[in-house]
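REVIEWER CHECKLIST
Item 1: Sequence provided? yes
Item 2: Single chain? yes
Item 3: Sequence as submitted:
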Amino acid sequence: MRRLIPLALPLALAGLVLAGCAVTAQPAATSAPATTASSVESSVQTTSDIDSTIPTAAAELLAANADGTVVKDDEWSLADAETITLAGSTASSDSAGVTVDGSTVTITAAGVYTLTGTLDGNVVVAAPDDAQVVLVLDDATIESTSGSAIQVVTADDVAINLAAGSTNTVTAASSADADASAAIYADSGLTLSGSGALTVTDTGNDGISSTDDLAIIGGTITVTAADDALRGKDSLVVKDGTLTLTAGGDALKSDQTDDATQGYVWIAGGTIDATATDDGIDAWTDTLITGGTVSIAAEDDGIHSEIALAISGGDVTISQSYEGIESGDIRIAGGITSVISSDDGVNASGGTTTSSSGGMGGGMQDTGETLTISGGTLVVDAQGDGLDSNGSITMTGGDVTVYGPTQQGNGALDSNGGIDVSGGTLAALGSTGMAESPDESSAQGWLAATVSGSAGSTVQITDASGTVIAQYTAEKTFGSVVFTSSAITDGQSYTVTVDGVATSVTAGVAVAGGMGGGGMGGGRP
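Item 4: Structure as written out by the authors:
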């Protein structure tokens, strides 16, 4: 199995592995040779190349996924480029690998091609199956009123490079049932690179789409799409670049359903600002964030994946969502994550297990989902459950603050299989109706208090000597506080003070209202 694995990761990824025709694994010290336009044979890094700075939570998911294809900039030379001059309704080129038929430009051979000018038509790549084709956009404007503006029909791997200092525009009105349903559509692996700018608009369907792997390793890219902004069916990887995405569907999507090692989204670097009518990130299998800055505003889930979801680095902000983060296996192992949701903030549901009763996730039944927090900083502001698992919640490290629901039908913490805490710091402020605290068997001490306050209230936790252990400013009205950290010892007395009103509690002791170990749980999955 070929794998996409990091070698050295100042931004969680030094270079994406490469895959082309006839690829075989080689030692990590073997670098991919620069090639001219021809068939590609590129090195593949192995599982042993995983950098030790990536937490195991994400590294093991990366190792289990198939590799993706990437055309790096050192694989081709601009000196080999042949020019295609776009001129309104036609174009011209001296290259033997280019044909022009009216407003359709067809590239039939491997090579590097520089496109400049304006074309009211289509650019088609119909090269041999083993060909690597690089399109360098250098102040190019391509606008199609029928189908994709840039379409790859056949090739092994295709790269679109944005020339330094250039501004490029690709526009299409592709119909929903078109064979090539995106402004830029590739029936091959597709890589976007360079330091120039690209604006892509599709008023009928997707913005940039590949039926294979889609990789973004550079460029300032703005995509506005009627449906998905970026779609790589086998995988979608972002290593670098500045992306502004506006989608009528999902902003970033991978939806290969036939192979459990594909259908993943991996954010390893770059800056992403995504606005979506559906999900911000939607992966059929896994979502991994190991670096970069991601800002998401979504009307449905902020980040969704069917199997597993790991955040081990980077800066993630979900400023709007229905459910913030959702997957069957959620792993928070690093990075800085902020979630605002109108329902559950972080929801471990679905995945590979299903409830026997269907519908609402089986109510109180533990269906095997997992939410594991081992590092990083997580802040959740949820109108539904703050941290929710249809299975278990496990915390071994990290710093988590939950501003939970104000309504009684949800809780700041909600699990069907219990909450086990052995490390880290967790403060959960929410309503009392469905409030839950960690299990009594947890190795780390915890306390629970029925105390109330409103937005702006100061919550202070002190030990018996009056030493302040923690202090928080509430984001909304609350009726309960659950807190755990290494400073808490079961059986000891502590004071929870809200706006000067003090309440004494004993750590590890349940209080009225169902706030014992395991708590009330339940509610919407």
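Item 5: Key structural point noted by reviewer: Helices lie at 56-64.
Item 6: Recommendation: ____
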